Amino acid sequence: MKKIEAIVRKKKFESVREALHEADIDFLSWWEVKGQGTAKQGLIFRGIAYDVTTIDRVYISFVVRDINAEKSINAILKSAYSGESGDGRIFVTQIDQSIRIRTGDRGDESLYDKETT
Questions:
Q1: Which residues make Cβ contacts (< 8 Å) with residue 34, sequence separation at least 6?
Q2: pTM of the predicted protein model
Q3: What domains, with CATH codes, occur in the chain?
Q4: CA 68 to CA 24: how far, in whole Å?
Q5: Residue 99 has what DSSP assignment?
Q6: What is the tens place of the pLDDT at every residue in 27-77?
Q7: Burial (CB count within 10 angstroms: exposed 0-12, middle 13-18, buried 19+), residue 20
Q8: Cα separation of 43 and 107, whole Å?
Q9: Using alpha carbons only, what angle is made at residue 89 by residues 22 and 80, rounded to the nearest 5 degrees?
């Protein structure tokens, strides 16, 4: 099993969520977060300088079976891409154990009801 975490632009979140749904990933969590990247920029509006280095992003997290990891990653890559600096990051980590509290199912079976997803 793999845990996939992604940080994407706020305006790209809906397209990422739809792409994950099309890749049969329906169970995920997300949070609106603020962050700071390497790009330093400012904005001048009506003569007042604003620091816009803090950026709004969406942090997405979900766990999938190993067979679904690559298609999940590709769905995020395609749907979050803008070609500009700040498109985000994807992190993939190994999950050793998963347990469904209601049934006591362990491992892959604890993630979904269907064997293929």
A1: 54, 55, 56, 57
A2: 0.81
A3: 2-110 (3.30.70.120)
A4: 9
A5: B
A6: 999 999 988 776 666 667 677 766 666 788 999 999 999 999 999 999 999
A7: buried
A8: 49
A9: 40
